[in-house]
Every structure is written in structure tokens, then in C-alpha cells.
Amino acid sequence: SNPSSGLITPGPFTRDFELEWAEVGLETLPDPQELADPVAAFLRELVPMREAGDDDYFSSKYVAPGGSFRTNIMDVSQTDSRRAEWGLTKYHANFEANCAYQLELHWLVATGTLLGDLISSYHTKAHSFGFHLLPIPCDLFPMPHVEPEDPAGADPLRGSLFVPLRLQALVIRPDLPDIVDQMFQRFLPNERPQRLQLLMACLLRRFGFVPDCAGVKDMCPVWIHCTAGMMVMLPCASQRLVPRRYGTLIDKSRRFLQQATAGPAGTNLARVEGVPVGFIWSWNHILTRRWRSSWTGDEHFQDCLLADFRRFCANDANRLKDYWDSIWY
After folding, report:
1. Distance CA 2, CA 239 (A)
2. Rounded to whole angstroms, how far apart are CA atoms 66 and 276?
3. Where is the signal peptide (predicted)?
4. Is residue 138 part of a domain?
5. Do 286 and 319 fall within a single domain?
6. 134 against 141, higher pLDDT
């Protein structure tokens, strides 16, 4: 246990023990006074800084050997069987109540019905303890025509959407290219891209999105809606803001944004180091009726949320400007 960090960390373990048992560090809930802080994260005097390639700050306070994710052997068959059926469970090393928690199942030798029963038992047990276990695709953000040789990214029916953030409404001189510099002119220039990321994270929280794993906090590039029906990615202009495990996804998103904003509509977008400011939006296409409930919502709810999010980001009815002014004054 590490009282100073507020994190209960697993003790020493061997590789054999890790394969047989699952150990997860538990992050304590934040101080209520910290949650009630009226100063938004992107306007605080100090923001957490990091160096390129530093994955520890984003992934977890405790990082297991080999990274922030760990694996152990999964026994697919819950009954005595002569056939050997097994797989691997990949899970995050830390759990935080205010973040999504990732659990991946990989298998080579398994019967489909037995695997389905195992997942159903996980779902039932999680629900009995107050958790919601829902499936999400491994490829969260398919981007057609970005990498034609990649089958997972070439499905046009699952293409991601780009929602631009109209920052021009927040500055006095929207005709100038340095919109982000105008917004955060009271802060150091090297902090401004990071403060923009924090602003976008605050907007996502207002619409019910949470970071995709513990320890990432407000600087996570990938966010998942609390209903698990939608995912959003924040394109990062600065490599200093990108954790290693998101590097390939961010590079892929930049090529996607170049195509999505290549027309006349992309000429009036705010940009940071040439990258358009906005959100990459994707749907959870495997959240079928089997997994839906009253709190997950349906497709109509998802469409309404996207439409409302677009109107907010476009400053419809002056909503974005009113939020910006309410934070400053």
C-alpha cells in the first residue's frame, strides 16, 4: 500500500503467479473538495506536464512489469472436461471508479457456446456487484480509406465521424490563425495545447463521457460514454501529449482528419500545428439488444446525443460561448 499516492498496489509477484491470478490496484476516490473546485482544469495555474514517450503518468500510478496491462490464463470450461479449452485475459493493472475499465478475452482453443456462457456469467456477476459489463469492439475508431490494406479500417458502414469544435466563437479576432493562443494568452505557450486538451475533456465530461482506463484522468485521448454506446477520441497535435500505446491510433486519426476536412468546409476550422480541433466520434456497433437495458439507451438516444453534441460544439444558441464565459467570470 502506498498512502502518499492514494493507491493500493499489488505486492511482489512472479510471472507464474501473474498467469494464474489476477491482481488489480485500486485507486481511491478523489477528495470531494477537489471535485468541487470551481476552477476548471484547463484554467488552473499548474497543469501536469510530461515528456514524450512517458506512459506511466497516463496509464497508471502503478505499472506492472511489461506495461499497464497484464494477462493471465482463462479457464473457458467451468466444468470438468477432458478437452483442454483455455484462453488469455488481458486486463488493466488499476481500477478507478470514475473511469472505464478494460477487460479483453483472447482465445485459440475454446468452444463458442462455452465461451458465450462464460461471458454471460461474467455479466451476471458484475451486475450483482453494481458494475456494468458491456462489450466494445477492439477497433474503436474504424477509419475507411485511411489504410486500405487494413481490413478492420476499410468498412465504410462503420466509419467514424468528425465533430469540429468552433473555437472562433471564443476569441475577439476569429479571423487570425492563432485562435488557441488567443484563448490561453495568459498562460505559457508550451502549455496551450495541453490546456486545449483539458478544455475538450471538460466538454466530454458534461456529456457523460469517462476516460477509458484508470490513471489517465483528463488527458486521455480516448473517452467512452457511460452507456457504452459511443466512443470519442481527441486528436493530439503535440507528440508530448500522446502516450505510447495511443501513438499508432493518433497517427491514423491525423490521416483521417486530413481527408475529412479536405473540402471547403475545412478551411474555417481552428487548427493546432495543422491538426483540426474537434472530436472523432464512433458508435459501439456490437452493443446489441442482448446487452441493452434502460440505462444504456437505444439508437434514438445515441442519435439525439450526437445531434446535441454537434450543436454545442458549433456554438448553436451561443451555448459554447456561454460555457466559456461562465468558467472565466
Report:
1. 31
2. 34
3. none
4. no
5. yes
6. 134
| Most distant CA atoms of the chain, gap in Å | 73
Residues 172, 321: one domain? yes
Residue-wise burial string across 299-316, b where 16 or more C-beta atoms lie within 10 A, e elsewhere: eeebeebbeebeebbebe
Give me the pLDDT at residue 61, please.
45
Contact 272, 235 (CB under 8 A): no
CA distance 155 to 142: 7
CA distance between the termini of the chain: 41
Residue 284 backbone dihedrals phi, psi, to 5 degrees: -90, 95
If you count them, how many residues does the chain have?
329
Could you tell me the CA-to-CA distances from 86 to 80, 112, 117, 119, 253 in Å, in that order? 13, 12, 14, 14, 35
Q: What's the whole-model pTM score? A: 0.80
**Rounded distance, CA 6 to CA 47, Å?**
19
Instruction: Check whether residue 183 and residue 242 sit in a common domain.
Output: yes
Distances from the Cα of 73 to the Cα of 17, 91, 112, 136, 221, angstroms: 10, 11, 18, 21, 30
What letter represents residue 53's amino acid? G
Mean pLDDT of the chain: 77
Q: Structurally, how many domains does the chain consist of?
A: 2
pLDDT at residue 59 tops 70: no
Element (H, E) at 107: strand 103-109
Contact by Cβ (8 Å): 284, 228:
yes
**Residue 103 is assigned to a structural domain of this protein:** yes
| Residue 199, domain extent | 151-328
pLDDT score recorded for residue 165: 93
